[in-house]
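FIELD: query
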Amino acid sequence: MPVVVVEDDKILRFIQCLLDPDVAPARAAALADYLICDVADVNGWIASVQSACGAFYPAEVRMAHDQEALRAQLPDADAVVTEALEIGSEELALALKLKVVQNFGLDTRNIDLEACARAGVQTPVFRRRINGVVGEHVIALMLAVGRKICETNGALDFASLEALGYKPAMFDTDHISGGNWARVTGLKNLQGSTLGAFGLGEVGREVASRAKAMGMQIIYHQRRQLAPEVEAEWNAEYVSFDDMLARADFVSIHVPLNDATRGMVDATAFARMKDGAILINASRAHIVDRDALIAALDSGRLGGAGFDVQYQEPLTGEESLKDYPNVVLSPHIAVGPRTEALADMEEIIANLAAAVN
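FIELD: result
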């Protein structure tokens, strides 16, 4: 039976449910529940993936939560799936049976590709569909807040618009266009604006590719600058955190929540932002200090915010952020239908099976 070592990511746990007949029943049940809103026949889909594996199914799937755990499992490994855990010459020396290292995405900075090639280990990559739909949602939030789509939804008469604080009046269409007779002020375009991407990893790059198509300039900040060829591919300029905040018309967060990033967008960060900038967060809510966010909205300096991740999920009490007309909150739906994650898993498992079989 092949042994597959998988970085312990919540999405990558799918692999254990699909390939390992000894997976914990609670995990298998959780996967079925996770898919039920979009997949009519969960068991049928699982069976189809297993059937396509040939001799690769069944497999023993071992989850590795850190680098030490990964190394401990490598002597038995026929295949590895990793996102952030590193595979270099030291790891390869432990993995004499290893045939394939599947990266969970396009960013292979954690894998020594040359060392793998010398060892005869395949290193397939793929563009994660699930990140693409998250990128779509980020752009949707930017448009919704910047174009005030939610705020003005259904406000099609003078009384409704006046209730929102606007002063609608028809233009003299004998001489000029009648566009925006509602006289909605403060609209922001994506075209010609600057996107400040806080993190240009897998999701950040998907946002950047769409932002570029919308005519935006892209600047980014993260702990480590990307290689020049990668920056050129995504049309992105590396800047300091403060410079990104000062220059961006839209700031979009794409970094994980950890001790370093928790509360990183705080009162000082908001003070450095361009007046009227819009903040988008589809990563984790607590990267943004909530009190500082509310203060920035109350001051009028922050042009608005769009969050797909919330400070409490699900909400069990009041959320004052819902009361701001320039704030759009969605219930963690950026990942879109489960079909994207399923297609990602199918491609990963097909790559592993092809290499091991």
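FIELD: remark
Residues 175 and 181 are 14 Å apart (CA to CA).
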